[in-house]
Design goal:
about 55% helix, ligase, Rossmann-like_a/b/a_fold, 13 helices, about 325 residues, binds adenosine-5'-triphosphate, two-stranded parallel sheet, mainly alpha, Trp-tRNA-ligase_bac-type, binds L-tryptophanamide, ATP-binding, nucleotide-binding
């Protein structure tokens, strides 16, 4: 069975962008692949996190994985910090990564722009991500479009290791959806929807109450004119909303355009809000059940135990090949 690995940061509440761009694919791949789905808490601390919030959000992300449909008896669900091998292999890969490669990463440029003090971990973040993936010899990595560059670097590092030390790692492939790989922000369609955006109105979280979702969508920026037309060049804001509609309703874009022909933005936005509420409400219900059941900790403990066995094998092989004295 081919292997899949992916992760999301507990740096805030998961958004509709996280769901459409990645989490939805996690749930589909679990039926046909050997899956490892992590909450990447070690990555989240590359920007300052309040300790109590980090702990709460780590549990919330794990619970949302399950609420969205990941079955913990099929897929391994765990926290990155519970499998110590991530930090160790991360260091080994940091030493194999070139400064120039890290300097080219657009996520680093975006997240460090305008900040006075930037932690070194934000810079070396991609080396840890490469370690996450290679530790399980993953074949496929389901991610949104913004992670393409990090995946390319992971592939380069796997090649580099194999060339220097002998064939060890599978070269992983990104698994990026054709539609919905880049859900844009509701206040500005030139930025991706991001859970760490300080403007709460710019994103919909998976746990937003129905009325909050309705309000956010009614306030979402639209382009001038009144035509509901998919035209990302000239109508980026409306096109983003249409593509969210298409993802939630599973209707083709042309059908959505036809439904609102001549009606203006009002009825379209109203229905879009109901589509999003309809998608998220059942997930929110399951989320509440999982949190209330008290089962989460044992799920995470078991997931981490299984993942550690696999991770230890690769770490040992890596250390032996690099010349560490492994006893
Ligand atoms: P942050 O804003 O804190 O950087 P993020 O949501 O961008 O967070 P992650 O939580 O690590 O980052 O992302 C998890 C997954 O969701 C990744 O695969 C990422 O590509 C995907 N993703 C994030 N935002 C979007 C988006 N707006 N559209 C589609 N996919 C997305
Ligand atoms: N860098 C990713 C999160 C992430 C990840 C991973 C994704 C960390 N490790 C391994 C896939 C595989 C992000 O910022 N979205």
């Amino acid at each position: 069975m081919k292997r899949v690995l992916s992760g999301m940061q507990p740096s805030g509440q998961l958004t509709l962008g996280n769901y459409i761009g990645a989490l939805k694919n996690f749930t589909e791949l679990q039926h046909t692949h050997d899956c490892y789905f992590m909450v990447v808490d070690l990555h989240a601390i590359t920007v300052p996190q309040e300790p109590a919030a980090l702990r709460e959000q780590s549990e919330a992300v794990a619970a949302l994985y399950i609420a969205a449909g990941i079955d913990p008896s099929k897929a391994n669900v765990f926290l990155q910090s519970h499998v110590r091998q991530h930090a160790e292999l991360g260091w080994l890969f940091t030493t194999l990564t070139y400064m120039g490669e890290l300097e080219r990463m657009t996520q680093f440029k975006d997240k460090s722009a305008g900040k006075d003090s930037v932690g070194a971990g934000l810079f070396t973040y991609p080396s840890l991500m490469a370690a996450d993936i290679l530790l399980y010899n993953a074949d496929l990595v389901p991610v949104g479009d913004d992670q393409k560059q990090h995946l390319e670097l992971t592939r380069d590092l796997a090649h580099r290791f194999n060339q220097r030390f002998g064939d060890t790692y599978t070269i992983p492939e990104p698994y990026i959806p054709q539609v919905g790989a880049r859900v844009m922000s509701l206040d500005d369609a030139s930025n991706k929807m991001s859970k760490s955006n300080p403007n709460q109105g710019s994103f919909i979280t998976m746990l937003d109450a129905p009325d909050v979702i309705r309000k956010k969508i009614s306030r979402a920026v639209t382009d001038s004119g009144r035509e509901v037309k998919f035209d990302p060049q000239n109508k980026p804001e409306v096109s983003n909303l249409i593509s969210i509609y298409a993802q939630c309703s599973k209707k083709p874009v042309a059908e959505i355009e036809a439904m609102y022909d001549g009606q203006g933005y009002g009825p379209f936005k109203k229905d879009l809000a109901e589509q999003v509420v309809g998608l998220l409400e059942p997930i929110q219900e399951r989320y509440r059940d999982i949190r209330a059941s008290g089962e989460l900790h044992s799920i995470l403990r078991e997931g981490a135990e299984r993942a550690s066995v696999q991770a230890e094998k690769m770490l040992r092989a890596t250390k032996e090949k690099m010349g560490f004295l492994v006893l």
